[in-house]
Fold this protein.
Amino acid sequence: MAYLLSLLAAGFYGAADFTGGLATRRAAAIPVVLLSQACGLVLVAIVLPLFPAASPRTADLWWGAIAGLTGGVGVALLYRALAIGTMSIVAPTTAVIAVALPVLTSIALGERPGWIPVAGIMLGIMSIVMVSRSPSPEEPALGAAKGRGGQGVRTGLGPALLAGIGVGLFLLALAQVRHEAGLWPLLTDRIASVTFFTILAAVGRRSLRMPLNLATLAVGGGALDMIANGLYLFAVQIGPFSAVVTLCSLYPASTVLLARGILGERLSAWQTAGVFTAVVAVLLIVS
């Protein structure tokens, strides 16, 4: 059951990233993220009473809040990267960083992984180099670049790498909550992220207005993301952490498929190889 939940979470994560990235291409990132996070807060507040009574501890709620802050920042950076770069490249790049972080954390805490995870990390670095290659003059420009050539890829990789760190910290933080906590950590997760982005918008005096179609995309992305978070939380509470993270980290597959089918994104040969290499790296890192 944990593996099924993880695969479903990966599908919803990928769809949420595509939806949020699409909205951020025509609106500022902070309003989109704030609206999507607020939607997630409303959704979890509605479904929370429908689940059996839980007994969260203070630590569970704090881990949820930490997950909300790190994950919220990660999502904002990811949406920005998806908006200015190529979704088929940004998504797997973020996934490689996000899944490598737990391994590096384990090493820092004294654990020594085998040669396979280390090979996965090296392969992940290689995949980032491959996907960042600009198309040669004879190769077609990327679909998402809209005539900007490889510039969108180079610009999108920076936020994508930082987004991977945020997502990795989110996965680590949410994995610390106990099974008895139920969905309560997701409530403090969204309270923390909504509060943070509200303050950020107020300090920057950013307008939260956006066209109805973009607001609908943001709300839809927030709902998909919250569903994915719930599935991941349940999966990591009943299944092995490494296996759950592995399957959840395959979310770029749905993002790539949606970007290819809806946006018509096309990659060069090197970048296509880099995307596949990134997926293999994810599997090796947590094998």
Q: What stands out?
A: Residues 137-153 have pLDDT under 50 and may be disordered. The longest helix spans residues 58-84. The radius of gyration is 18 Å.
